Amino acid sequence: MPPIQTIRRARKLRRTMTPPEVILWQHLRRSPMGLKFRRQHSIGPYVLDFYCPSAKTGIEIDGAVHDMGENPEHDLHRGAWLCEHGIAIIRIPAREVLRTPETAVAALVSTCQR
């Protein structure tokens, strides 16, 4: 069970989603190909942008901030922790979601179906 502060952070993030997250959620909330997705889903000490429980797959939308400061190292630790707990991660650049959201959704659905 995630710590209560992680759950609170996830709730706050749901109210302040970035434009690429909003665009992607508009597609994923319709359960494409019968896959259910959750947004700003807390797992352990982390919050994933999106999560597909049936595929045990997290989806991260990477904006420019992911390349700054300590964020790359944090992403590595986070990815390792999630992998240890059986959760695969798909990282998608925010610019791809903004440019061609349908292509991004198709790739995500295809990966989650495997």
How does this model look, in words?
It is a single chain. It is built from 5 helices and 4 strands; from the N terminus they run ααβββαβαα. With 114 residues, the protein is α+β, with helices and mostly antiparallel strands. It has one domain: VSR Endonuclease (Endonuclease, Chain A, 3-Layer(aba) Sandwich), CATH 3.40.960.10. The chain has a 4-stranded mixed sheet, sandwiched between helices. The longest helix has 14 residues, at 71-84. The radius of gyration is 13 Å and the shape is globular.
Short recap of the structure:
The protein is an alpha+beta fold. The protein is 48% helix and 22% strand.
Layout of helices and strands, plus pairs?
Elements (H helix, E strand, L loop, with lengths): L3 H12 L3 H10 L9 E6 L2 E7 L4 E6 L8 H14 L3 E6 H6 L1 H13 L1
Parallel strand pairs: 3-4
Antiparallel strand pairs: 1-2, 2-3
Helix pairs in contact: 2-5
